[in-house]
C-alpha cells in the first residue's frame, strides 16, 4: 500500500470525503461520522505501523543502509565494467582474482545484501543469521586478499561488521524477530 510521508495511506482522504458527504447534518450524524472516521483511522494506523512499532531503529537503519548501499554498489560495479580506468586498477593486482570475477562477486554479494535488507524490514529471523554469515565471509575474503597498506580499510571493516553483528543480536532485535509475525 502506498504511503504518504505522514504515514496516512492515500485512500484515507477519499474514504473520509465519502463518509463526510453522506448522511444528514444533524448533531447525531456528525458524532456518528466522527466515530466512523476515528475507527477507520485506528484500523489503518494499527495495520500500517504494526511492523514498525516494535522494530528497533537500529535495525531500520541497518536494513535501509544495506538496501541503498547495495544498489549504489551494483550501479558502481556495472559502471566499472565499462570504464577502462577502473578495469585497469582492478587488473593491477589490487585483488588476487581477475577484474571481471571481482566485479561479478561484488554484484552477487550486494544483491544478497539487498535481499537481506528487505528481509530484515519484513521481520525474517533468518536474515540476521545470513547477514552475519555474509559479514564473516567478507572479513575472511578481505584477509585472504590482504595487501600491504590495506589495514586502513580492513580494520574499520572488521569493527563495523562486529558492531552490526552485535546490533542484530541485541535483545530488542531478538524480540523483534521472534515477535508475532516472525
Description:
The chain is mainly alpha-helical. It has two domains: 11-52; 55-177, no CATH class. It is 79% helix and 0% strand. The chain has eight helices and no strands. It has helices at 11-21, 27-54, 57-81, 84-94, 99-121, 125-144, 151-168, 171-177. α1 (11-21) runs antiparallel to α2 (27-54), α3 (57-81) runs antiparallel to α5 and α5 (99-121) runs antiparallel to α6. The longest helix is centred in the first third of the chain and has 28 residues, at 27-54. The protein starts with 10 loop residues before the first helix and ends in a 5-residue tail after the last helix.
Summarize the structure.
The chain is mostly helical.
Number of helices: 8
Return the domain count: 2
Distance between the termini: 20 Å
Q: Give the helix/strand class.
A: mainly alpha
Rough outline:
elongated
Write the H/E string, N to C.
HHHHHHHH
Classify the beta-strand content into a percent band. under 5%
Helix percent band:
over 70%
Radius of gyration using CA atoms only: 24 Å
Low-confidence stretches: 1-16
Largest sheet: none
Number of strands: 0
Could you tell me the mean pLDDT?
A: 80
Amino acid at each position: 500500500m502506498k504511503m504518504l510521508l505522514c504515514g496516512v495511506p492515500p485512500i484515507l482522504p477519499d474514504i473520509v470525503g465519502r463518509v463526510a458527504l453522506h448522511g444528514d447534518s444533524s448533531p447525531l450524524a456528525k458524532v456518528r461520522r466522527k466515530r466512523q472516521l476515528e475507527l477507520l483511522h485506528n484500523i489503518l494506523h494499527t495495520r500500517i505501523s504494526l511492523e514498525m512499532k516494535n522494530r528497533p531503529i537500529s535495525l531500520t537503519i541497518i536494513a535501509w543502509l544495506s538496501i541503498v548501499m547495495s544498489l549504489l554498489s551494483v550501479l558502481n560495479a556495472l559502471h566499472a565494467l565499462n570504464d577502462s580506468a577502473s578495469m585497469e586498477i582492478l587488473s593491477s593486482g589490487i585483488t588476487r582474482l581477475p577484474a571481471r570475477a571481482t566485479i561479478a562477486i561484488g554484484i552477487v554479494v550486494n544483491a544478497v545484501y539487498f535481499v537481506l535488507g528487505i528481509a530484515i524490514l519484513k521481520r525474517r529471523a533468518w536474515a540476521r543469521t545470513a547477514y552475519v554469515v555474509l559479514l564473516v565471509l567478507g572479513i575472511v575474503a578481505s584477509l585472504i586478499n590482504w595487501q600491504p597498506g590495506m589495514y586502513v580499510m580492513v580494520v574499520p571493516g572488521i569493527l563495523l561488521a562486529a558492531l552490526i553483528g552485535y546490533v542484530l543480536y541485541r535483545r530488542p532485535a531478538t524480540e523483534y524477530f521472534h515477535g508475532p509475525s516472525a
